[in-house]
Design goal:
19 helices, Rossmann fold, five-stranded parallel beta sheet, Helicase, Ruva Protein, domain 3, 46% helix
Length: 455
């Protein structure tokens, strides 16, 4: 074992067979697994076949110097620390080794204890680099607390689809009602992809007039139009290497759609008023709350552009179909906003929870956040109460509430059947969470289980 209590693999490169054997024996005794190579060719083969943690190489070898080989490794394997052995312990040699990317260098004749210390530090450096890489990857792939929060089956399906599609460069059409989190899904696709270290750029195609939208997307040269006083690169170039989200794509002017189609197919963009094309490496995501197929049928959207964008479609569920996610999101918004408002509100009163679950949520998650923000601003209690909610939630109109028993023309049912259907409805809304269902129904769990068995 090393001084740090960790074992690792070390590749020794030296044309002196006796020295290689000595070092291999000593390092094995210290807990390392050592491999030896008499030349760089053999070393490359071992590196290709084995998982090596640290390279220990002589400075002077036939064919290529240790410093040149170190530079080669540093360019191709920057995570692999290299320690150089040299009989020439000059300042110039040390500087050359460090410039080539060496982690450390030791002088010959080799002091085995000092060498072990150097290799131990190099090995720990390798472990630390690997931990940092894993943590960065974990952070990159996990959802921030305020994004895609929920545990419903519908949302789990979306998260699974995101994980499968993230590293593909193909276009994705994200559809769903307003407020369902289409941009959050786009950001998740970007964050979990190999493009995560490059820009994520979003633009609302409905927010700009045609000329300005064209300039924003494709850029313009100086003098392209009246206010074009200087050259400007468009969002396709700005997002190069990353992801571009075209939100509300259904609102894109028909005249711009052929130009967008060409950029998607050729990966080249011509700035407004320009004579040359610029290469752009961008993954394009599109989002819309409108049905693009209807827009195609009505002649408002080109069919060829629709098929180019709709390689894969992610359809987001409305909040009313996400059951208990409504309460999870509400609680999250309370914790998030209470701190901003400097209030001690910690949760929901039970009638509020029941009210939130029975509401239709036409504005989806965006509307829920606004409702919680308003309620927190008005609240004088440690939990939100019905009085804190807006009128449309406390007294929803018939078309905004969720029907449970059918319409006015449905048959009159026995009370037990009505009770059975209502319990089933509540369980469906809560994704089968019986504890929460019993709480909202005002009965204990044993009673709920008994009623379920009676069915």
């Amino acid at each position: 074992m090393t001084a740090t209590g960790e074992s690792g693999t070390i590749l020794i490169i030296d044309d002196d067979t006796a020295l290689c054997e000595l070092l291999e024996e000593d390092l094995s005794r210290r807990g390392y697994q050592a491999w030896t190579a008499l030349n760089v060719t053999a070393a490359r083969e071992i590196l290709h076949q084995q998982d090596i943690d640290v390279v220990l190489t002589d400075l002077n070898m036939p064919g290529i110097s240790g410093i040149d080989f170190c530079a080669e490794l540093h360019a191709n394997r920057p995570d692999l620390p290299v320690v150089i052995m040299t009989a020439f312990g000059s300042l110039e040699t040390a500087i050359g080794a460090l410039r080539a990317g060496a982690y450390d260098f030791v002088t010959k004749p080799v002091d085995l204890d000092l060498l072990a210390l150097s290799l131990g530090r190099a090995f720990q450096h390798r472990l630390l680099q690997e931990k940092v890489r894993l943590l960065k990857d974990q952070v990159r792939r996990q959802d921030p607390a305020d994004e895609l929060l929920g545990d419903s089956r519908a949302l789990k399906t979306i998260k699974e689809q995101i994980a499968r599609l993230a590293d593909l460069d193909t276009s994705v059409l994200i559809s769903g009602e307003s407020g369902t989190g289409k941009e959050l899904v786009a950001r998740a696709l970007h964050r979990q992809s190999h493009r995560a270290d490059h820009p994520f750029v979003a633009i609302n195609c409905a927010a700009l007039p045609e000329t300005l939208l064209e300039s924003e997307l494709f850029g313009h040269v100086r003098g392209a139009f009246t206010d074009a006083r200087e050259k400007r690169q468009g969002l396709f170039v700005e997002a190069s290497g990353g992801t571009l989200l075209l939100d509300e794509i259904a609102e894109m002017p028909l005249a711009l759609q052929p130009k967008l189609l060409r950029v998607l197919e050729d990966h080249r963009v011509r700035p407004l008023g320009g004579s040359h094309e610029v290469v752009c490496d961008v993954r394009v995501l599109a989002a819309s709350h409108r049905n693009l197929e209807d827009a195609v049928a009505e002649g408002r959207f080109r069919s060829d552009l629709f098929y180019r964008l709709n390689v894969i479609e992610l359809e987001l569920p409305p909040l009313r179909e996400r059951g208990n996610d409504i309460l999870l999101l509400a609680q999250h918004f309370i914790q998030q906003l209470a701190q901003r408002f400097n209030k001690s509100v910690s949760g929901l009163a039970q009638p509020v929870a029941s009210c939130l679950l029975s509401y239709h949520w036409p504005g989806n998650v965006r509307e829920l956040r606004n409702v919680i923000e308003r309620a927190l601003a008005l609240s004088h209690h440690d939990r939100l109460t019905l009085e804190d909610l807006p009128e449309q939630l406390r007294h929803p109109s018939a078309d905004m509430s969720l029907p449970v028993m059918g319409d006015a023309n449905s048959q009159i049912l026995p009370l037990e059947e009505m009770e059975r259907r209502y319990i089933s409805h509540v369980l469906d809304r809560l994704d089968g969470n019986r504890t929460m269902a019993a709480r909202l129904l005002g009965i204990d769990r044993k009673t709920l289980y008994r009623k379920l068995k009676e069915d």
